[in-house]
Design brief:
With 462 residues, the protein is α/β, with parallel strands linked by helices. A nine-stranded mixed sheet has the order 1-2-3-14-4-15-19-17-18, sandwiched between helices. A seven-stranded antiparallel sheet has the order 8-7-11-5-6-10-9, with helices on one face. A hairpin with a 2-residue loop joins strand 5 and strand 6. The radius of gyration is 24 Å and the shape is globular. The structure holds manganese (II) ion (2 copies). One manganese (II) ion binds next to helix 5.
Length: 462
Amino acid sequence: MSDYKKIKEELFYENKNGYLRSDDETVKQAYDFCEGYKEFLNLAKTEREATAAAIVLAERKGFKPFTREKEYKPGDKVYFNNRGKSVAFVVFGEKKAECGINITAAHIDSPRLDLKPNPLYEDVEFALFKTHYYGGIRKYQWPTVPLALHGVFAKKDGSVVTVSIGENPGEPQFVVNDLLPHLASEQSKRTLSDGIRGEELNVMIGSRPFKDDEGSELVKLNILKLLNEKYGITEEDFLSAELEMVPAAKATDIGFDRSLVGAYGQDDRVCAYSELMAVLDVKAPEKTAVAILADKEEIGSDGNTGLNSKFLSYVVHDICLNDGSDETVALRHSSCLSADVNAGMDPTFQDVMEKRNASFLNHGVVVTKYTGSRGKYGTSDASAEYVAKIRALLDKAGIIWQTGELGRVDVGGGGTVAMYIANLGVDVVDLGVPVLSMHAPFEVTAKLDVYMCNRAMYEFMK
Ligand code: MN
Ligand code: MN
């Protein structure tokens, strides 16, 4: 090798495509891992479903609901189910909690169309649902996409009826309509963000009237009759329901080479699944491992199932009670990977990215030092020392990783749960998977990155 090449190799930082750095066995493991991932995406389209699915998988691996009555030993596995919408899995470590806990946190809520509290109406002989979108959607993307209805009716007698319709073969689906181009000349003058308005995201749910010679709203009546037969509910029960329209499409491979996964809700169930599979494999770690699947990230993490709440502190408090540790000392010595997606470089929309600091699909899991916007507002900027620790951990384990900012300076920005955990005194950095078409009804990730995310989580918690 020439001097020039040798010195350049020593001094330059280069981040090659992960496939050029992986053997066939690793690639096979990545593809295999994503088979389970796609199954998880299909059965966990809401935070409630993701929580339930995660608990089923965890119980199979010996996780049990936490109770203060029991004394836990290293290697014991418990979970804290937060109202069925958020969950924390814990594997007790050899060391006391005040020596520090290794925390991973992903979110399991995704952008979608929530039904309003009084959603059902009839107009020009159609029955429809009014919706209020949840999270940062681009509204124009949601019409003419087949939708499924997920959620619950909570009734006054305390019972809860679970709803999932539009996922299984043969079940009906739903749709938001859009104008035909022939009559869209006025609508076409609107800006893209205004192309479809919030109050135009009305979901078509039926058109067949109840057969009677008199009366009005016969289509609505017929729908209520069907809902009453199936779920035992009346119109008033919508007042205490959480019902969500989500894309009905199934997760699938994308590309002739099957290197990509296309599906709804990969932000952030891609990190959630990677994290879950990692914590389920953790045996008896040196430090206690906590894996959180959080709700409400897409609307700012507020509320009792989001991470801008005391949920994590209470979990740490309970862990500390078990071995007589001090909670604040434990938090001060703890480390966290805030596991969320980043925007990957899109070949068609390169100009919103700054190439030297963008994340690329197939270049591995992304470490994001800070997110935020307008000059790093609204973020936790991880310390150099902590990023160095994570670099060392990833490199030692041979994990393919990259760095990435969320787009060019001042083009936009975003946030994660990192700052809420950092505010407790924990060292935190964002780590996750690059995504294309983030927040769209159908998002794209790369299999190699998904697998590297899982391996990173495991190395961090093991
Ligand atoms: Mn996210
Ligand atoms: Mn998001």
